[in-house]
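Lab notebook, bench 4. The sequencing result for the construct came back, and we need a structural model before the next group meeting so we can plan mutations. Quick request posted to the team channel:

Model the 3D structure of this chain.
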Amino acid sequence: MKYIVNGTVLLPGGEVSGKALAFDVGKIVGIEDAVPAGAQTVDAAGSYVAPGLVDVHCHGFMGWDASNASAEELLAMSRQMARWGTTAWLPTTMTLDWPVLERCFDAIRRAMADSLAPEWRGAQVLGCHAEGPFISVKKKGAQSEASIQRPDIEKLRPWTDVVKLMTVAPEVDGALAFIRAAEKLGVVLSMGHTAATAHEALAGVEAGVTHATHTFNGMSGMTHREPGAAGAALSNGRVYCELIADTFHVDPMLFALMAKLKGDKLVLITDSIQVAHLPDGPHDQSGQTVIVDGIRCRFPDGTIAGSSLTMDLAVRNFRKHTRLPLYEVVNMASLYPARSVGMDAKKGSLEPGKDADILITDRDFHVQRTFVRVTSFRMTAWRKPCRCHPERSEGSVRCI
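Done. Here's the predicted structure in token form:
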């Protein structure tokens, strides 16, 4: 048995101080009042002890792109993500031609297996979030119009062990039948890149949609006479709503409102792309130029290309603009995303029996140490990289 002591432990329902978090053989054991003499301990030194963060929508990071990465490159990305508190994630593919997507799925399948190895020291690859290709041309955003296709369940069927979450526009021809069939195969369906009316969006929910992709972005907006896909997602109690909490994709004035509307169905994501954590300026991303400017990533024509967010920064941003208790904001970045894709039996909180994915953070939620399914102390912790750009502490550049 091992113990983390002298910390404030963040549990789903609140904070616990003056006790120890016990874990053993890669699993959380629970909260203990006392530590046996001679036991192995880690001193949190007054910091927070939090569950590892779960990112269900992440395209890329630090020069890697899930849409063209090998299994080895996905694992390299996973190792880096752990530095910023992400301990489990869904590599997210773009709308691509189906044979290209199948190559992505194959690489993700291999990375899933490798990240379960006992010696693995990085974020676990839980599966794939396929953002398309069954989406609306009208709301394609940064997605490739040429690769948008009609929904076809037979294409998806061989990959349901890999594709855990799939973004679909519920109004496109054939989408409702596809949603019903995919849901029966165990895939979580998300409405996104959709021009659906509120009525069409709710028809998708009735068919099996339980998730909304980067709410407000890439979907029909909400007005007082036509609530659109955004209004349908926010008002329906079955739907988990993703939020890119970088203060750029969605105005932070809406953060508290979304929390009130969605409660335990609000899911913080990064939607980070290949250029995340690269220096400001133009970068090549799969043959396209993307311009990084702090938290903003745009194509030359001004279209939003994605985000440079990390999950720990999403927590800090949301907490700053809502003043909600830290444990509840952490739930939005750990427990609720895990639950939204059916992974909460093992991930998302420091409850007994779950994987020992643990963070130690300072009082402002900057990650100090990360543990992923730890079985020993020798090779399990990543210390946060030094901050060589203090003037950009809320930006996208840090030293590795």
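Residues 67 and 100 are 8 Å apart (CA to CA).
Will bring this to the meeting.
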